[in-house]
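Much of what follows relies on a compact textual record of a protein's fold. An example makes this concrete, so a full record is given next.
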Amino acid sequence: MLKYQKVANDLAQKIEAKVYPERLPKEDELIAAYGVSRNTIRSALDILTNQGIIRRIQGSGYFVSFHPDRLNNVINMSNKYGLRDLGVETPIISKVLTLEVIPATKRTADFLQCRPGTPLYHVLRLRYKNNELKLESMK
């Protein structure tokens, strides 16, 4: 696993554990804490931003967008980043059981920053890693 992937994983775990409930430390503080370069920190933050876990507010820093336990079973699939960016090497095989379009509820619309009623894809799938069924959770 590359340095930026390790940093991204560690930051994600700290967000989940609510070490950072609202806001992440400044870039300089993260550089000092992890002993890595600014580019490494920015690459790690880019992964978390693209996963929808944090958001950047220009001039203010990085803020937690949501805690994984706040809205289970919702994954932002609109970005180009995936498990490989987080250092997952083993291929994961998916078997889609159902695929349907459903209207966004108010709660889901707030999370995804869209309007209630917006058509969303609802996917129910099984995922396998090393030919073993993996039970997933956002936690």
Observations:
- The first helix runs from residue 3 to 16.
- The chain has a mean pLDDT of 80.
